[in-house]
Prior knowledge:
Elements lengths: L1 E5 L1 H6 L1 H13 L12 H9 L2 H5 L3 E7 L5 E8 L9 E9 L8 H15 L4 E7 L3 H8 L3 E11 L5 E10 L6
Parallel strand pairs: 4-5
Antiparallel strand pairs: 1-2, 2-3, 3-4, 5-7, 6-7
Helix pairs in contact: 2-3
Amino acid sequence: MTTVRLGADQLRERAAELADLLADTVNAGASVGFLAPFAREHALDWWRGRADAVAAGQLAVWAALDGTGRAVGTVGLAFPEKPNSRHRAELVKLMVHRQARGQGLGRGLLAVAEEAAAAHGITLLHLDTETDSPAEHLYRAAGWTRAGVIPDYALDPYGTLRPTTLYFKRLAAPAR
Length: 176
């Protein structure tokens, strides 16, 4: 697998395969902000809508490519605009296609995002994930700290209110 950072143009070019990934992730039951059944055309619209944020430097997106060059995983970092928040970023949309799971791809994408954040001068990352989801094991194993649980935070893909767990991770400041 190869992981590449996508600029706005590359994101637009790969929007169709990213839409397939997002639709697969939601329809497989992952709680990433959408309800199932999730149509590919809605996923395509959502990804196309991210290109401006990437161009503005508010969002960084990486795609994991399989041996054929198809995107089978993704992760993003959302950077706050407020001056007092520029030391932190939110980890967003860590997704792996069902056909590519179990190969360490999620852990690899997480490491890429953490390394890029540290190189960008970010010293604190945070995220939220559905409580008791498979993703929680990944974050704990990667050294993320559980900050707490918010009950009834969001609907899961099937429309049931579920709690969300907040995590954070401190990163080493880059050498200067």
